[in-house]
Amino acid sequence: MIQKITDYPCQSAESYLCTILYSVGLYILIIICVRLIGKRGLSDFSLPDLILLIIIGESIGSIIPDKNSFPHAVTSILSLVGANFIIDRLSFKCSWFKKLVDGKPVVLIENGIINEVNLRKNRLTKPDLKEALRINGINDDLRKLSEDLYATLETDGKISLIHKK
Question: HSE-up of 35 (CA within 13 Å, CB side)?
Fold first, then answer.
């Protein structure tokens, strides 16, 4: 008989299946939560990779207080690596799934005009935008932006700037 989901940590014969289900469920929940938080702050890791590292660290940490949790921690880690592999493959093969996981780039400046709505939606400030301009060697006076300037918040949280002529 399979235990109720609320009885975690599982101690029955089905404990490994329970560990897999909890691990993958937690992984998906964290992806959803981080996507709701937004892109700001993500830089070099993809979203699934960042979450994988966090949860693996937590799984390994669970080994320390209880010597009997080692097999469950290994099961959890393998489940998470498997879920990450599947999400990576789906993201590679299905553009709609990649947009679901990573989001879409967001235009912040178009034709030299700042999109205030997109700045607010992504919790970016004008000083953040000015910093991106300076990093790219562009005058950071927001009142005097070139009419051919475009800025985009990429899916990894970086702001890219280009001049379109």
Answer: 14
* CATH class of the domain defined by 106-163: alpha beta
- The span from the CA of 73 to the CA of 133, in Å, is 45
Where are the chain's structural domains? Answer: 5-102, 106-163
Q: Which residues sit opposite 150 in a β-bridge?
A: 162
38 phi and psi angles, rounded to 5 deg? 120, 180
Angle at the Cα of 156 from the Cα atoms of 164 and 79, rounded to 5 degrees: 150
Q: What is the C-alpha separation between 84 and 32, in angstroms, rounded?
A: 14
Asked if 42 and 156 count as a contact pair (C-beta separation under 8 A), the reply is yes
* pLDDT tens, residue by residue, 48-88: 777 777 877 676 566 554 555 667 766 777 787 888 889 88
Q: Which residues pair with 152 in a beta bridge?
A: 107, 160
DSSP β-bridge partners for residue 107: 152
Q: What is the pTM of this model?
A: 0.59
